[in-house]
User: Fold this.
Amino acid sequence: MTTILAPALDVELLSKIENRTARLGLIGLGYVGLPLVLLFNEQRFPVTGFDIDANKVRTLTEGGSYIYRIPAADIQTANQRGFRATADYSRITEMDAVVICVPTPLDEHQEPDLSYITETAKSIAPHLRAGQLIVLESTTYPGTTEEVLIPILEKNNKHGLKAHREGQAGNDTFFVAFSPEREDPGNDTVERRDIPKVIGGLSPQATEIAASLYGSIFNRTIRVSSPAVAEMTKLLENIYRCVNIALVNELKLLCLRMGINIWEVIDAASTKPFGFHPYSPGPGLGGHCIPSILSIFRGKPRSGTSRRASSN
Assistant:
């Protein structure tokens, strides 16, 4: 009697990605998720968008757009290629890979509000199945993927599935990775696919699957050793911008008092071929991420308690 073994879950999913038959679910159809939908759709992947906002779902279904950089014609083309938007999270079970692009704003205590991540995890966990890839893109503190997202997925799925870890065998697992979004709204000088994608999986297999998936739409992928490294990478990028924007704004005020032209100073400093990157003064820190980036760490639990709990 010949025993036929099922292919390893990672090999099966990699094959689907290579053949563009992997079914993709994008959760959160805002300025991060919707551009990803279009990139995957252009590569002929079957893509389903999930959002709790019924107005967004209706607008996309009707071929409209609510993001100024994305014309309605792009949505209509995507719909013709098979893209569908829905608020029905039971359809997560149909997906081979799920990418989470939900916001992480600050709450009234100026700590990161992870409720969008936790509620999304609770919504998809009952529909999780073995062999799926789950990727988190939301800006958050290092440890969120492993300490917040994965425990919810493992506790609340119906089949006793566990996130795949290095050296783990068996077909009762799912794959998890973190890949920080690098969307720059308003910047039309760099093509989205030319922005390198950083990827850190819970296991080497998860990293390779996620890299294969993103490699289908981005020209370069950068693999790092863990989700926490990828999470910290995003924070370093944003903190670097935050500090330098604040610095040049302060220097502008100083130059005004001293009668010095700050723009001439910046132009002159920019001639240095190493160790300097020019930043321009402006009205202050803007955008969705930069103003809140230094508060992200306040949500990181310390010795088993949150900062807020330890201060009570």
Notes: The beta strands are 24-27, 47-50, 84-86, 97-100, 133-136, 162-163, 173-178, 197-201, 221-224. Residues 1-6, 303-312 have pLDDT under 50 and may be disordered.
